[in-house]
Fold this protein.
Amino acid sequence: VLPQKSIDEVQEDVAKWAQQRREEIEMLKTNEAYRKEFLQNLSHEFKTPIFAIQGYVETLLQGAMEDARLNKKFLQNTARNVERMVNLVNDLDEISRLESGEQRINKTKFVIQEVIREVYQSLYILTNAKNIKATIKKGCEPPLFVYADKEKIKQVLFNLVENAIKYGRYGGHITASFYKTDEAHALIEIGDDGIGIAAEHLPRVFERFYRTDVARSRDIGGTGLGLAICKHIIEAHGQVIHVRSKPDVGTTIGFTLETKKE
Ligand code: ADP
């Protein structure tokens, strides 16, 4: 026979239950607000390139096509806007796959330095165009073996290095550093000496579509989803990502990973 609960205990249970319901309702409200904001942002993101394309195509059809110079220029602008939408759709696909849990984290052992080198190579055209020097700083004895999803970590590094270039200055410097923080963890950091991020924006840069300068980001082909994707991937590994930055000095974004003995 179960001992009977005292009135006080029953009241306590009811209060706990009510508190839990209140928290659940709050969470649902936040999710709903989040969903609404996301949809608003999304339609806004698509409207910009669509209206631009509409404008160029209509102007071409109304006669600008006869002018070879205008023709080429407007078609180039159209292509740029189409590319922006393609980037957006790719990033959205990635986010939804990550959020639905459809994509599983497939951990293997690999050398982090090799992946950094591959990412540097694939972005060589961009670094070269801005005359940026990209180097690797060894904070511990290489090779550093990490245990993570190699393709996803490569994507994180790609997004971070691409941002470091996009928001970096001409003739600037990008550094990728790796350290061992303890027996089982490593810290990987991508640093630049570019425009930096003001303190008031720092807590929000990992949010979807959050940008410190929307016009500038769009202009350089940003979708505002790159850092949100990075955060998702790192958190799916059970690890953390953080940013520190100073306007006009530079930005460093670092994340932790599990390490593995050789
Ligand atoms: P975007 O596609 O706009 O680059 P991200 O999600 O990758 O979107 O980054 C969000 C915002 O954070 C950027 O729009 C930019 O304002 C800021 N940001 C990201 N990386 C850097 C960096 N290395 N230097 C300065 N600002 C950055």
